[in-house]
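Researcher: Structure for this, please.
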Amino acid sequence: MTARPDPEQIEAALLGGEARYTRAEAVSRSGASPEFADRVWRALGFPTRDDDVAAFAESDVEALGTAARLLREGVVDEDAAIRLARAMGQTMARLAEWQISIISTLAFSPDGCASAEGAPDDGSLGPLVGLTKDMLPDVERLLVHIWRRQLAAASARRLAFMESSEDAAPTYFPLAAGFADLVSFTTLSRELDEVELAEVVEGFESTATDIVSSGGGRVVKTLGDEIFFVANTPRQAAEIALRLADGVKTHIEVPDVRVGVAFGPILALLGDVFGTTVNRASRLTSFARPGTVLIDDAMAEHLRGEEALQVVAVRPRHAHGLGQLQPHALRRSFERFAPTAG
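Model: Predicted structure, token format:
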């Protein structure tokens, strides 16, 4: 039986060199203050290391030095630097876990494109780390390109929001927010084993993400049995919502979804969005029946002139913390998609 890889060997292989510096040495070589270095390290999501342990590689020193230089040159202030570090740390931690779960299936699954026998094996590092290291240069290039693409798209969206209204602010502007929720997920989780349930969740997230992206929206986050998305306009959000309600249920292994969408001002912070508009969308989702879409008054007002859509007021509902809500059922116009009787 092959011995487990040494964590220090894994770090050295993936970080481009072994850990050779203590915390004090790394801070001194980077040019950062000890206080700033500690704040950045914690914001990135890494545990505090003992003072006498050589736990930092040359690449750690370079990264910390870059952050310190940006601070010295006034490109960012300390609070902004810490916020950026926290955003990157949380995002990259999730991305790394996601990537390793995929690469694991390649390294160890006989059905994958690289089995345990066929995967690269860097000495005692094992097939998983060997394959990861082998893919690293290509993945790094893809990562930077995708990040630049997403940054360009986010910049364009933010500028459009700022120009759309005199009341818009950099983090406060009107947006359509929606939730799509898998129906009876708790029951399903009791009936399926872990592997089958994971396949259902991945199928749902994959299908939903494709629908949102192709419709011009953006998935803010996924919560297993629920996705939260936003769109620039009510018309975009309406099309996405209807496609979610129709599209997900075509996959037999995934139950129907219910969708709720609201339009109004939102607060955009830390890659997430907040506010009463988001809360309304969440409540509307909980009121919706399987395979249906409920929208709020603001969405309904914007969509009433759309010939391809049908907006019908349903029974008002009380929502805790929001008061009385007037939901509207959103459907495609019958006349357009089905022949007229007679």
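Researcher: Any notable elements?
Model: The longest helix spans residues 126-164. The beta strands are 172-182, 218-222, 226-231, 257-269, 272-274, 293-295, 309-313, 317-319, 323-325, 328-332.
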